[in-house]
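Anyone? Bumping this.
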Amino acid sequence: MRRIWAVAVKDLRQAARDPFSLLMLLGIPTFMLLLYGYALNFDVRHVRLAVQDLSHSAASRDLVASFLNSTHFDLAAALPAGADLETLTERRQAKAILVIPESFSGDLEAGRRAVVQLILDGTDAGTASTVLGYASALADRFNASLAPGLAGTEPREPLVDYRPRVWFNPELESTQFIVPGLIGFILMLTAVLSTALSVVREKERGTMEQLLVTSLRPGELIAGKMLPYLAISLAATAVILAAARLLFDVVVKGPYLHLFLVVLVYLIGALGLGLLVSSVSHSQSMAFQVGALISMLPAIFLSGFIFPIRSMPAALQAVTYLVPARYFLVIVRGIILKGAGIAPYWPDMLFLVANAALMMGLAWARLTRREA
Amino acid sequence: MGTLLHVIVKELIQLRQDRRLLPAMIVGPVVQLLALGYAANSDVTGIPMVLVDQDRSSASRALVDRFLSSGSFVLAGTEPVPALVERWLVEGSAQVALVVAPGFGERTAAGRPGAVQLLVDGSDASSAVVGMGYASRILSAAAADMAPGAGRERPGVEVEPRVWYNPDLRSRWYYVPAILALTLMLTTMILPSMAVVREKEAGTMEQLIVTPLKPWQVIAGKLFPFVLVGLLDLLLVSGLVVFLFGVPLRGSFVLLAALTLLFLSTTLGLGLLVSAMVRTQQQAMVASTFLLMVPMLYLSGLIFPIENMPAPIQLATHAIPLRYYSNVIRGIFLKGSGLEVLWPEALFLAGFGAAALGMAALRFRKRLD
């Protein structure tokens, strides 16, 4: 135990002598939280809308006003007849163009369907389909508001009284659901990269051989190497949680002890992965490449953090079962947002424990073989 | 010119000697492309739904059928009363609960609104939003069909959508070309910054400095191999984007390559700048990844649309070089834009590139003195 401690103190000193890296390890989480908190937003508002009103009637002006008053759309340009619509979307001056034909008010008064065209820039498919939804809702509302006498419409309530209720995150705030994913991603990244780089750095300098010829047993060396980074990563988790609470009002609803336990098990797996990466890398840039690729990519894209797993092709869905962040995310979302404990998620927890044991075992095997 | 050639040859040899680095430059982008290309799909299907049908009439069964036949929802289970659905949502075995209130069939038959409640697990906000959108579309269609006089054409406004550039609204077409920028930043910003610092760490930088080489020759020689790597990645990634993922390349590839070179001058300059300011490879990696790549990625509109950000952040995005390159990528791939549209982007990229390289050269010279 004393020897483990000695290695840990040595590594901690090394980390502390590099205040830049230490600052980054703790500063990055807050920084990422800010970036995600502000950049990731599913609420599409203020879409730049260009209007080509060829009807010039009171009805067409009403329709345009109902679009602009909705806060979903901002007027980007009022276009004359014959304007070059293509250049407008290519230059990104408008994301949507509403074209109201000359016959619009005549059709409405005669009680016919008045067709308006909505041209959408489909490059960003997600935003475009949301905008499409807004536009048809606005048209429905506009139709309902048409004077009852006009062309035989009578205003009436829809027959289905639909009441959606959102649990666990009623405002559907993106920050609420980002925090668990962010913890999973940051911890994986910093834990894998910091252990991998610190071991490879010692290999490059030749000090690793010095450590190996000491009377330290491999287990002691591994434990000592991991402890400082375990401590730093736990501190990083605390920083994320504190920042999320102060800046975005994200409160942990479940028990902190359970959260701590999950984070600890997840971290041990990540640190083991870092050791494994270090054992196959010869240079720091190699360790960085390999480490970033196998830690960051799955934790962001294959964990269900941003893209739903159910929408992936079956083969890729199968791969996600091997990604620890997937299980971590389920449990931590449960604890932070749903106020649950670990209990309902025991299969996920079991996987995390197995993953931690496997990673540690493999790292152990690689390190002892190296010594022999 | 002859001396510059010698430096370039030295750097190329050095790059080749690092046997494991070169595969990483190719394997990395390909793995990223495959993961993002197949994973990035914000369309949601098969949302697990728990059903509480307290009405049990033909009208309520027809409503449930609409949900299930849409393909957006699959039945995960049923419960007799709403109070029992909480366990499903907490465990995550269902993401939504559809509750049809008693009397739904009778009320709708009488022309009065019948109550339907949808309980949504909001802990995964993105698919919750999409799921609620699907549900409200299904319910308003159901309401319209049950209304008296359904099927008759009713007067009013009808919005006819015309989606340009991506008529089937495939989210993959939005995400996949973005890998190009991601790859280029990794191979031409982060890796060069680490390569230069490695020479500093190894002490060979001093040897280069005491040679009669001029500073710009050292810089140019260091950067040239990475320009080659960048262009190689451009070919590789564009090929996969077009031939594997079927994203159309509607504009000119030559223009794309030319504007990519402008973007490379920015990334190389920034990478060099980082290397001049740090002492270890680890610092170079951390600084170029987290202070440069990550903010650029998120604030450029490459993955998350700029329109949805708060106004002050939107303003800040104008200072992000990747914002302009992202416009270039999307413009050339999907919209088929030419230089007559993209000239402002070209100007900005050239400006950023000149500034980044200039600043890097300045820092570099000072260190030599």
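Late reply, but here is one note on the structure posted above: Residues 174-205 of chain A form the longest helix (32 residues).
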